[in-house]
Amino acid sequence: MDTMYLLVAAIFALSLTSVESNLEPRIVGGKKAKISDFPFFVSIRTYPNKYICGGAIIDDFWVATAAQCVRGVSPNNLFVVAGVAALNETGDRYAVQAVQIHPWFNPTMKTNDTALLKLTRKLSGKNIKKIEMTKEAIKDGKDMELCGHGATGYPFKNASINLMAIELKSIANDQCSTLHNRPITNYNLCTKGKSAKGACVGDVGSPLIVRGGIFGTTKLHGIVSWGTSPCAQGKPDVYSSIAAIRPWIRTVCGC
């Protein structure tokens, strides 16, 4: 049976020293990304400097990530780094004031796998920008993009020091459910890449987006939640759906 690539500190909370010693410049099937193309991306870390997850800036003081990343972690032990595309770049550090985990988060099924981090100061600076959140569920077959610092493949020996990006396509939840042989709720959305392309351990919490084109607005649609091991072997990656949890987000931060 396939095993979920649940990103928890015990599995992939790598210090920058250990990350740098096991690097390949890509995630599974990805390409190196510029932070100017993903200015809403942040890396979430624990002190003194341990990367645990990706996240997305959704408002001046707020970052969205996966609940599994920060469940049981004190806000005093968390900070985010913004404005840089590599884990060994200094970037701008922001301390975390509070952690809000979705009240219906199910750690076993990974439903409602979303958390909001309130920072102690306003996010601002070069290549630091919030992303608009979608209000509409994604349609099947939509072109999407994912960025993150995920592992390059199974068995998770390599992480990417560089921010990587990959193009994926959304698939219907019923098809996703069939391929995983388990329920996929409306609080999730799924993507599927070509063979040997997809999310992996270390990408959890990272943003899934749809580009707005020349005249449109780039929007946040999902937060990486789980997939199967080995990574990128034909089964869909599963995300928390921003459209589905938007009402809760609004009650927490007014975003």
UniProtKB/TrEMBL annotation:
Belongs to the peptidase S1 family. The keyword Cell inner membrane does not apply. The keyword Acetylation does not apply. One of its GO terms (biological process) is proteolysis. It holds the Pfam family Trypsin. Residues 27-254 form the Peptidase S1 domain. This is Peptidase S1 domain-containing protein.
